[in-house]
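User: Study the fold:
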Amino acid sequence: MNALPARKLEDDERNAPEVEAAFEAVPEGQIAEIIDGELHVQPRPRMRHSRASSVLTRSLRAFDPPEDEPPGGWFIVFEPELHLGPRPDKLVPDLAGWRRERVPEMPDVAACTITPDWVCEVLSPDNLSTDRGKKRRIYQRERVGHLWFVDPGARAVEVYRLTGEGYLLVDVYEGDVRERLEPFEAIEINLGALWRM
């Protein structure tokens, strides 16, 4: 497969200066993202959302242990700022993971430009359409290998795998079950713990 030669971005292909300035000026108590050149600002997540993210982070700690212990092999980061694509799109997923075989050392930067291998978005009424729509399309464009949507209200996790055709729904896991979810099949995750408050 032949790669297209790199080309210089034109000014109209970058985020507008006023959008970048507004992004930088968003107060700390809010989450700012630039998606398709537009600023999106939302409040910090509610407790149910944050709790599901926190429990899932703890559930996956075996994949990102402090020592090189099995199963290991990942860097998993809570709410990283990602700058993806040429414009760039500036996204803050709830969780993202990079395989250490591809990224042996995470750069110590405020915003990461390396595409993750896995992204998890915890859904809430405030972000539902953006996460499922625009952000999903960006993750697909940037070739994020796995995408999860965790929905605390519906008590469900949707797991998607990237194929040549786009994202394929692997399965929807509902309720208080223990399951092995791609790409973390080495352990069972207690999904019921994500819904408890």
